[in-house]
Amino acid sequence: MEVIRKWVQTVAFLFMNSYWAFPWTATIYQGPLKVVCSPGLNCYSCPAAIVSCPIGALQQLFLSARLTLGGGQLFLGFYVVGTMGILGSMFGRMICGWFCPFGYLQELLYRLPSPKFFVPRPLRFVKYAILLLTVILLPLLVVNEFGLGLPWFCKYICPAGTLEAGLPMLILQPDLRQIISTLFYSKLTVLIFFLLWSVVASRPFCQTTCPLGAWYGLFTKVKFVRLTLDKARCTNCGECHHVCPMGVKFNESPDDAECITCLKCLNQACQFGAISLEVAGLPVRSLDIRRLGRADENSD
Amino acid sequence: MALKKKHQNPPAHKWSLAVGSFFLVLFAIGVAVDEPSRVLEQAWQICLSCIGIG
Prior knowledge:
The complex is a heterodimer of chains A (300) and B (54). With 300 residues, chain A is mainly alpha-helical. Chain A has helices spanning 2-16, 22-25, 54-63, 65-70, 78-91, 94-98, 101-110, 126-141, 152-156, 159-172, 182-200, 204-208, 211-217, 239-243, 264-269, 287-299; strands spanning 225-229, 275-279, 282-284. Chain A starts with a helix and ends with a helix. Helices cover 56% and strands 0% of the residues of chain B. Chain B has helices at 12-32, 35-43. Chain B is built from 2 helices and no strands. Chain B is mainly alpha-helical. Chain B is elongated, with a radius of gyration of 22 Å. Chains A and B meet through helix 3, helix 5, helix 10 and helix 11 of A and helix 1 and helix 2 of B.
């Protein structure tokens, strides 16, 4: 199952960034697919991106809301929030584990040999504050004399934007190098910080900072695809704690908002069939569980 | 003695259907007010300040 997940992550990454003509055009894709919001964090100013980042699109709508309302247009993020909500209610944070390019990058970095550390659990609440402040409130409320706000998250925090768009655009359009300022260096520092942290800790950006992960985490109790715990079978051995990339103690909190449904606990940890995958209320038995079942029958 | 009927919450997937439907309505409103064209317009431009340049 882990191999399948890696393939899905790779295909999702390549599909979302499949405008490979950019080295010749030296600019971004400007086709109709950009109207589609990507499920994961994928900067739409990335030269290879063919879809929009929902967090970027939402901020752009909010920061210009006063102007568009003044012009009689009701652009308040219905389309983007609707897309994010539909995805959230179907998959929740499974999107982080299966479809997010920046999550995938962090997973690859964590494979590098190094001492490994846990991300302190209280830091997981920071991302909710980032979602509320930098994606919603500040772009809506802090505006200039023309009524325009700023994309606070993209401008000051998002390391995915620096990596996928900022650095490539500086390579593709050398003229831009003349206008970089301290803002670029501060964002570069943020990017380097998260890349280094990803080597020694599992998915630190997802756990602490990602506003999209925070949004999808809100759907943890109502998503269609979810992992469930059979308490009668659970022995509280704690094996599921060791494999979880998000530091979830599944036997203690099966509805944890951090769970990215990577299925590692189901396939690599639990030997008692206590964890199962449920889609729309229907249990889905994994291949590995079936194999386990056969092993049990053979041992009997 | 009358048996007290046990209160049961609707299963999670029914809630997800309700929540999903709500967001589907939001999505439809967005399409109806032509928000996708605005999203497209923004996504076609390189937002330099968004990516740390300028």
